[in-house]
Amino acid sequence: EALPNGSPTSPTPSDEISPDYYRFDRFPEYQKLSQQLLQIEALGLGSPFFSVHERIANDTTTIDGRELINYSSYNYLGMCGDPAVSEATKAAIDRYGTSASASRVASGERVIHLELERELAEFIGVDDCIVYVGGHATNVTTIAHLFGEGDLIVHDALSHNSILQGCELSGARIIAFPHNDWQALDTLLQQRRHQFRRVLIAIEGVYSADGDIPNLPEFVAVKKRHKAFLMVDEAHSIGVLGTHGRGIGEYFGIDPQDVDLWMGTLSKSFASCGGYIAGCKAVVKYLKYTAPGFVYSVGMSPPNTAAALASIRVLREEPHRVGRLHDRATLFRKLARDRGLDTGTSENSSVVPIVVGNSLMSVKLSQVLFHRGINVGPMFYPAVPHNAARLRFFISCTHTEAQIRETVAIVAEELAKLKQETILPELNGH
Ligand code: PMP
Asked: Whose Cα sits closest to atom 15 in ligand 1?
């Protein structure tokens, strides 16, 4: 077919295309973001995002040259910066260098990958394990790969973005059930199970915005009743729940084999970067040969692998770190509640929110606390529902009781002051 003859004066098709479609700075979503950032800047308190830590972030940190009590890092067990973990990591660099330099299927395999997988599987109490380079990527690639058209994925309404992305990419039918509501899930599956091939139930061990824990034994019963697969994301529960930190399975005393896919990240309790899926031999083997995020991605770097491996070994030797973490988090919750602060539904975990409602109030409080020597991040819509903005405290076993007492007293004082002094509008579009 001949190309249409355009005269030099007639508009070519590309003249009619709006710059909105070929300039990133014209995207309406970019303009909305810019407006929100300007609004925060107008408060004159600086940005709460991308703060630069100048050293190891554990119970304390340094930002802008200021020494602060730190609650913004997931270093729950103090493994990041632990001398034994750092030494093992340096030794791995000396032996293997800094990269696996290939996908593990090709020639990226190192013996420490297999040791890490074996020790994680043993720690959790299942047959086998696969580690991926990122926690987020682990959920996306695993869920999207194992499930597809004709399948159903039912996930908790407050699921992490990585679970949602995996669901979306899978092509399966996706339904959210109300947060932690295993009865609603049961009813839903009673009505719909027969319409689908495979069914995946996806939940988390600890929900990271609220610090609450699902009733795992009930979810196991639902999964068995409806012949579904159960996946539990233990990003914030591995190393945290259970006497030895073995996670939500240990916490409830269930048989680890009753969960089909134990997912977790290596970036929190295990002082590294990466994610894992632990389960039966068949699923791990299948993922190792076929999951796109594993096969077409480089193997975990030797230092990251060694750091996670050393962290698990230290944890096995020093389970009292978990007990101390609990003592500190329990103290924080108790003191906060005694002072009338709203810690929401946080229970028995190391995540404690202080809910303030208004988004800008959360930003402002975070900034005021920074000036009082406390580093804690705000969290607001769309990360949490409207009017449920909060400061989110990640407690570490390295925090001292004195730090926690001082922190709660200052938070209560500053929040009361702010509530009296300030009426803040909501962020645009909220
Ligand atoms: N799952 C949950 C529940 C998370 O909170 C996170 C991140 N915080 C991830 C997965 C992704 O893990 P990573 O940050 O290690 O990529």
From this structure: 135
Neighbours of 206 (CB within 10 A): 26
Distance 192 CA to ligand 1 centre (A): 30
Which domains does the chain possess?
A: 42-76+320-421 (3.90.1150.10), 84-317 (3.40.640.10)
In this structure, which residue's CA is closest to atom 8 in ligand 1?
Answer: 235
- Going by alpha carbons, the residue nearest to atom 2 of ligand 1 is 235
The closest residue, in CA terms, to atom 4 on ligand 1 is 235
The ligand 1 atom nearest the CA atom of 208: 5
Write out pLDDT tens, residues 112-152.
999 999 999 999 999 999 999 999 999 999 999 999 999 99
Cα separations (Å) of 248 from 196, 240, 286? 29, 8, 25
**204 Cβ closer than 6 Å to some ligand 1 atom:** yes
The Cα 39–Cα 44 span in angstroms is: 9
Q: Is the ipTM of this complex over 0.95?
A: yes
Tell me the CA–centroid distance for residue 267 and ligand 1, in Å. 8
Distance 203 CA to ligand 1 centre (A): 13
Integer Cα distance of 247 and 204 in angstroms: 11
Helix/strand/coil (H/E/C) assignment for every residue in 95-145: HHCCCCCCCHHHHHCCHHHHHHHHHHHHHHCCCEEEEECCHHHHHHHHHHH
User: Strand locations in 234-357, DSSP E?
Assistant: 261-265, 275-279, 351-357
Predicted local confidence at residue 10, as pLDDT: 62
Best CA proximity match to 366, nearest among 385, 402, 343, 393: 393
CA-nearest residue for atom 13, ligand 1, is 135
- Chain segment 376-421, per-residue pLDDT in tens: 999 998 889 889 999 999 999 999 999 999 999 999 999 999 999 8
Measured in whole angstroms, the distance separating CA 359 from the mean position of its chain's CA atoms is: 21
Checking phi first, is residue 228 left (phi over 0); if not, alpha (psi -120 to 50) or beta? Answer: beta
Separation of CA 393 and ligand 1 centre (Å)? 16
Task: Work out the burial of residue 324: count CB atoms within 10 Å of its CB; fewer than 13 is exposed, 13-18 middle, 19 or more buried.
Answer: middle
Cβ(118)–Cβ(129) below 8 Å: yes
